[in-house]
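Readers outside the structure-tokenisation community will struggle with the description of the input data as it stands. Showing the layout once, in full, would remove most of the difficulty. For illustration, here is how one protein appears when written out as sequence plus structure tokens:
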Amino acid sequence: MSSRINLNNRQVQRLAPLHKIILAATSVGLIALCVFYISGLNTIPQSVKAGNGNAVYPNLTFHDPVLISGEAGQVNAIYNFAEVDAGIDAHVEILDLYNGARVDDMDHFTAGYYKAWQPFVASAANTISWIDWRITFKKAGTNEDTVLTQLAATAVDVDGDGAYLKEIVEADHVKGYSMLPGTKISVVFNRDSCQAMSTVDNVANIDTTRTDAMFMMVFYNVSSIDYRTGANSTYGAEEVRQTCIYFKYFDVMPTPLPVELISFQGNAIDNNKILLKWCTASETNNDFFSVERSANGEQFSEIGRVDGAGNSSVMRNYSLIDSKPLQGVGYYRLKQTDHDGTSATSKTIHVELNEKISRESKLKVTPNPFGNYFAATFELKEKRAVQIDVVSLNGSLISSEAIFGEEGINTYNFIAPSTMKPGIYIIKIRDTEKVIATARMSKL
């Protein structure tokens, strides 16, 4: 199989001074950030304060990995990155090479950023493939785990190859994520894990000024994280992609808020109203919640507000009734606003009322039941934009993606988030007016 490395679009860059890397942020809007929790602070060498002036995140340096266990590039291989911070080593283990993915280079440093971890990942032809990594932090020179109170992992240059391939980034133990307006990345957040996928568009260079291809996740009180790098490819041969994971907090990104959201759900009442309910475990400086609604899962407008508790360390329940809901499918999300005006947005949920379905297309899901991914095949009578939603039986939106369908047979590939539990799910294909087709499927 042939290999393509798009280094013509990834010029050699040396790490610029911090003031040149971090953009001046004026009115930075938060795209999505959910399940928030700020714990005690820990002063760590080489660390920086986040934009709120309180949270402290280390700036880790990953370079010169040394194989300490297993066979290079194979499952169970463990590499040591020494002194990623003062007194801290990082052990990186290969947990899985899924569906033909392979490690082409454990850490490439002549393009991109020397301090970032930049593995070359080979993505298999015509399939979804990935590498699962486990990053464990150790006391330097020992095998003893150490806990990082706070950690930021920023994926730089999450993009496609310009025609056939979409890059995938995912991690577990995620407490919040952020990206800027205009980012060409779709995100699925499921309480403890977060998955991001690019479009096929290519972004030139591995460059932290190209925030349209950057995606930051934050973690609290972790000694290890599981991280996934891969691709959804329709290209007929293997492609090698340089990935860039920068363990650094970027002030240009929105700051996680001190609210821990336990749940957010919606249910139909008498088939003419929607009851939205949510629960928090703790709140700090919380001003109010806004409930926002959308007909397509993309453009949202506020339908009501509920005052927050301000400061609270006990479980609190909230609710709001949508007395004039949308007929058919409605999408809802919760926006929390702090007293200083900072805001963050929860995951999107889905609720429906008497939805009428046009049997225009037969929808086939294979395999069904499925494990890590499935392919959905459907037919359109003409070219047009459609939206593809995957929802749970309780109405939670697992995934939503807009695509431009072709006349005739279309295929949509779905990658299951790592925390998507076994059970029954529904996939829906819809245009701006109606649901074209639905199907049920089981996750193993």
In short: The radius of gyration is 22 Å.
